[in-house]
Amino acid sequence: MMSKLNGLVRIAPVQSSKKPHCAVGQSTIRRPTVCMTRDSDGLSATEEEIMHATHRALVNSGYAELSISLISDELDKAKSTIYHYYDSKDALLLRFLRFTVNRFEETINTSIGDHPKEDLNHIITTLLPCDLTEEKRQLHSILVTLSPQALEQEVFREQFTEIDARLSTIIEKTVRRGIDANVFRAADPAHVAEYILATIKGTMYSRLTTNREAATVAAKSSLSSYIDSHLIS
Amino acid sequence: MMSKLNGLVRIAPVQSSKKPHCAVGQSTIRRPTVCMTRDSDGLSATEEEIMHATHRALVNSGYAELSISLISDELDKAKSTIYHYYDSKDALLLRFLRFTVNRFEETINTSIGDHPKEDLNHIITTLLPCDLTEEKRQLHSILVTLSPQALEQEVFREQFTEIDARLSTIIEKTVRRGIDANVFRAADPAHVAEYILATIKGTMYSRLTTNREAATVAAKSSLSSYIDSHLIS
Predict the structure, then answer these.
(1) How high is the ipTM of this complex?
(2) Per its record, what are the GO molecular function terms (chains A, B) (predicted)?
(3) Domain map of chain A by residue range?
(4) Which chain B residues are within 8 Å of A230, Cβ to Cβ?
(5) Mean pLDDT in runs of 10 for chain B (233 residues)?
């Protein structure tokens, strides 16, 4: 199970030599990622298998092709098994979103430590990797694809609300640790976190929906400047 | 025609007293908005009527209900008139997006002047108004709703690319004017523009797809701090 989980939310290595202009912050030294060894989702074994099958189907076939049939092929069980737990593809993807954020959160929590600046850069680079692998692109695409559902359906709004709140909390805690350690200047950690998250999300959406690759690099570069000049004491 | 155009992209007044924490920047003094008096879309009279009918249908009925039938009702012409110009609702909405951005751009270009800091705040407040009117919500919702199309269809990607490029250029020119006038510090105007645009877009998307209203206020407040401390000389 551990290797599967590791595969799902593997942290992209920082590209320090190939694309230095894309890296956030000056320090690109990373400690090795510690994998989480347990699952905190409270999912049954079958549900967890469905989550992993969804992940494999997504990476192998892409979002546009994703279907309950493809997922059941990856699961090697009948579609009725999936429908026993999830009424629709959207319901399954909604749960998969949460599952992915849980994995992401666990990985971040176990891989960040006592270096708030490096930890913050690590979080940003994880959410906005220099090289967007096909795996990450498919996962980010789910966010873009499910967003319109959140305009009309409260259950989707709640899921997006929870995802943003959790990402924001991770950033906020890191900023707060930095302030407490005098690595960062005094600032409102919650405000800074929302600001960084908004910039990351805007960059993530633009990266997927436009052909403006240079804009991604520029936005990340300015985010790095902001952290260096505004946050670093 | 002028009043229609004015109605389409009316600039929301800055909420200086009700929600001061939401306003961007310190200065909330605005010159009156100058309305554009001509159309630069190169649309035929009928196409322009279709655009205005789409706008009215959107504001009156909301995005979820929007249909070619509703638009043709507003147009007071047969649906075949619309299909003569646009193959599908998506094709029409894609054109409507460009039409709206054209109007926005013209209004901004005629209402901003020789005060780069106020002009920049004005652009941000126009894209991220404190009070999101139903009209603005519907227009922003089109962006969220059409985004998934851009993941797969190049024609949508190109439209989103153009919209972002034009918004970025407006911000960049304003920043450049500020630097030239020694109102802003020396900085890379293109980088700053992409950064501000990314933050605006992330905030705009989160505002529509989550229940985190305080996050919007926090992100705007931090954007204001960034401009004050990073950009203002």
Answers:
(1) 0.81
(2) DNA binding
(3) 1-10+42-88, 112-233
(4) 225-226, 229-230
(5) 35 37 52 39 90 89 87 95 94 89 80 86 91 86 88 91 94 95 93 96 96 94 88 83
